């Protein structure tokens, strides 16, 4: 394993630790220490997401494995964070499914492209999606921290949902729209893979 792959792998390790502290802290303790631990872990996830590609390019160690593993690690780490929000009751199941199904569709598309001898390259919409999802994660952590510090103007519910839900709406909408940016340019490849073999 090269250094970039090790950095990418660290996200897969950090994410379940985040889930443990967030779910346990949110549901079982009145202490606020856990929210700071979660913020630090979320920051590590984002930093490793930035660093792995830069390390690979700087060391001239870009590999096809890295190109595939990086988005998989991104998906696993972010899905774990969002599952934590779901279990805590911050986001509803249907909002979580937006993130889950988008990643599932992209994984299918990567398999389709790989079957055709191609590696699905990252697109600008995918990078913007990652930024918005990261911002959403920290937004939720800020909301929860304000609630735990009993800040008067931060309500427990806002229009029938946890305030963190509204933080995640914009990332969810953009996540949904980003699917088209990946699927449309690859329609030809999808149609080719759907052809009946004779």
Put the structure in a nutshell.
With 198 residues, the chain is mainly alpha-helical. It has helices at 3-28, 33-58, 64-87, 93-115, 124-148, 163-183, 187-193.
Descriptive overview:
This protein has 198 residues and is mainly alpha-helical. It has one domain (3-193): Up-down Bundle (Four Helix Bundle (Hemerythrin (Met), subunit A)). It contains seven helices and no strands. Helix 1 (3-28) runs parallel beside helix 3 (64-87) and helix 5 packs antiparallel against helix 6.
Keyword list:
mainly alpha, Four Helix Bundle (Hemerythrin (Met), subunit A), single chain, 198 residues
Architecture blueprint of SSEs:
Elements: H1 3-28, H2 33-58, H3 64-87, H4 93-115, H5 124-148, H6 163-183, H7 187-193
Helix pairs in contact: 1-2, 1-3, 2-3, 2-5, 3-4, 3-5, 4-6, 5-6
Shape: globular
Q: Percentage of helical residues?
A: over 70%
So how many helices?
A: 7
Return the CATH topology.
Answer: Four Helix Bundle (Hemerythrin (Met), subunit A)
List the helices and strands in order.
HHHHHHH
